[in-house]
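pasting for ref
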Amino acid sequence: MSRIEQCFGQLKADGRKALVVYLVAGDPEPAVTVPLMHAMVAAGANIIELGLPFSDPEAEGPVIQLAHERALKHNVSLRDTLAMARTFRETDQTTPIVLMGYINPIEAMGYDVFGQLAGDAGIDGTILVNVPPEEGELLDQSLAANKIDPVYLLSPTTTDARARMLCEKTRGFAYYVSLKGTTGASTLDVDSVRDRMSTFREFARTPIVVGFGIKDGESAASIAAVSDGAVVGSALVSLMAEHADDKPRMMQAVQHLIGEMRTAMDAEAV
């Protein structure tokens, strides 16, 4: 059983929902990433999405685009990102790490090399925004050989037929992008999410988590009530940018927000 399966299984047994958190590897500087990952887990995060720095993150809004730029100023590469995951694994063998980003650096490295290095580093899944399942077969083979789950995206405009296909292809969990647009955009419509989740559950073979638009405890709890978990990214990255010059304050602010979300989600589950 994979770490992702174990995580969701334990959460279900405990009557809780997954809190999935996102940060870009190397933002605001490389030395901060692994300590931040541990701080997030200590505050109540269940799964970490580790962003792979890329020069053209087309699905991201301004907040996360700037995080990629800050990381790239330090020349943080795919190999550096995997090294950070490997360091995290030295003291945390439990928390799933999902590498989130774009296929371009992986193409440059080569699928087989990436699969082996990512598996060795303790990566449990990938969310590659610009790889639809129709184009992912060869990569999926390499991921499967290294026990890494490809996680595919659902959206408000996904047709029922395509949702069925995506749910068949995804492993570990599926990720529902709840808003049209880029990360950090617009206002969350929980009723709309509830309706779409009802449809997707007809096809789902894995848990479904929901991201985009989750900013605080209230929104995280509302989403967790209608899904298997909430994903928070831009709200955390904003705090990291705000306190980039004061690392202790950054850790405190990130942990406070995650703790607020964890408390609200657990209260909703009671």
